């Protein structure tokens, strides 16, 4: 018997399959309908066509032990190849070859295999499949249709020549096997049925010869559906397959080898189908087809509605993206103001103007906390000069216990230092108000208050943009304030000794830059169940271009970043600050590492220096799944079971090439308890001893494996101790950064 584990079938099918297997080259089509939809109250059963084609492929290969096959499919999972036959089968799938199906089919036919298997027959592949069969290849494929037998041939002829009656072009089509699943009788409650006069007359009219054959072999016992608890009162349980085998080819070879109606009657005589279902089979087929069309139409309407909703969502997302892009441009302008402003008030005025524009306010005022416990009004827009006090007590502006975050809060009333007066005199009433603390590392440096005399409230999106902007503005103002203090000290020192003052100013500026840069590097990491983080950084100069970050993304996800900016010193530090800000902003916007890298690359091309670039490794850890992208950075290492494994992935550095040429790939890795994930910059492997010999990747991996069992914070310290011992008195030429993750 044919090995059809998924089918209950009759011996007649085995004989037909044997003829097909023994036949020569030609096209073999397995036909059937596999609907993915169901209408209410009427389950549309899949035909089992794909399963039967896999079985038929196996039988054709077993019939010829020397035969080899080529399978043309969309993916590796489309056609499951039996394990014992995989050595004899070559798979051409879209995922591996990256070529259209017509090109893959032509290539397969040119090799003239004993068997060519095409996953699905479509209009664009029909002619190629027929030509391959005419050229001496046995081609097996499947076709989505409700037809069987000669009707399938006519449908294919209509698709080929536009005429369903001209089938001469399809003489290479030798076999059509139609498959259809129908409900099977419940074996627990079905009852014998004595056909009535009308049923006997219809049986005699439609199955006269076959009925005589069944009677000669023993009086056929027909059954009807009942109803029991086993089948839920339906009378049916499970399905049974019907087959129709048709021989085509030249006209003299046309033969209906196994009619589906006769096959159904034999199953009814064997007790698997109800007699009424056999007699109404064609009407039921028409009803099922009509139901499928109705369900498809309903699904099409639902899909169209979903697309319309999705379009609206995309348009909304586009508006948000435009706002965020404008915000990023504002951030860049703020950085330029930090470099170009002559004094702190000039910077404050720029910040005040941009904050007002971001949230569509018409009034704004910015306060700066001075070291003498006073608050100074640095800038204001929309208020009259004669109504603003320049100096206020610090407690009137900032509350040290309250101002520890940059979260904007609603503000009602008049800003501190502004004389209140009646709206009639003012000419407008203050409606929406926001107070935005300016905080750096948990310490307030000032505050900003914006008002609108038009809006009843500020939209949440604008509030979020203002909060992000305020974080950068606070850092810029703190920097500018520190620079002003530094300049004042330099003037005093220049009066005593000019050369010493210049030297001390340079050292102070570099130290200030180092402190600012180090403030970007986290010393505390998000709490993530099952993970421990540790990092260590040693710049080659007072300021460097390396940075790392661990970003909390919500829902237990965390982003891991390590990067290396080209060049060293202050330019690298500024480019590092820009790159880090862009990565953090984009990481909150999208969960795809490659999208984050691509967006940052595009923004760096617009905003960054043309002769600078940065290598970045960015990944998202969600539970045990680590998804990442590598933009020209050294490959991180996975320490597992006493071995070090390099992570894969491709991509070029950011800030140099357009995204089309960046070749960024997104990779996925499943981590295990005990794993150590090591992210590092090339300064660790390029360190040299006093003789100039590089430490190298091999030694570096050996040091990591030697300390792999240590807690990650101890591991980081020990690795740097070993590297510095190797370097000895030699100069450190490159920044060194290490970020380690331990999976528990």
Record keyword descriptors for this entry.
single chain; 744 residues; alpha+beta; eight-stranded mixed beta sheet; six-stranded antiparallel beta sheet; 19 helices; 26 strands; 23% strand
* Terminal-residue CA separation: 54 Å
- Per the principal axes of the C-alpha atoms, what is the gross shape? elongated
Strand content: 15-25%
Main beta-sheet strand count, sense and barrel state: 8 strands, mixed
Identify the strand order in the major beta sheet: 3-2-4-5-1-6-9-10
Q: What does the oligomeric state look like here? A: single chain
Task: Classify the helix fraction into a percent range.
Answer: 40-55%
What does this structure look like?
The protein has about 750 residues and is an alpha+beta fold. The protein is about 40% helix and about 25% strand. It contains 19 helices and 26 strands. Helix 10 runs parallel beside helix 13 and helix 13 packs antiparallel against helix 14. The two termini are about 55 Å apart. The relative contact order is 0.06.
Brief description of this entry?
With about 750 residues, the chain is α+β, with helices and mostly antiparallel strands. The protein contains 19 helices and 26 strands.
Record the SSE blueprint:
Elements: H1 11-22, E1 26-32, H2 49-63, E2 69-73, E3 89-93, H3 94-97, H4 101-110, E4 115-118, H5 123-134, E5 138-144, H6 150-161, E6 173-185, E7 191-193, H7 197-216, E8 222-224, E9 236-247, E10 255-258, H8 260-269, H9 275-279, H10 281-340, H11 344-358, E11 363-369, E12 374-381, E13 391-393, E14 409-410, H12 423-426, E15 432-440, E16 443-452, H13 460-496, H14 498-520, E17 531-538, E18 546-554, E19 557-565, H15 569-589, H16 593-607, E20 614-622, E21 625-631, E22 637-640, E23 643-646, H17 659-662, E24 666-670, E25 676-680, H18 696-706, H19 712-727, E26 736-743
Helix pairs in contact: 1-2, 4-5, 10-11, 10-13, 11-13, 13-14, 14-15, 15-16
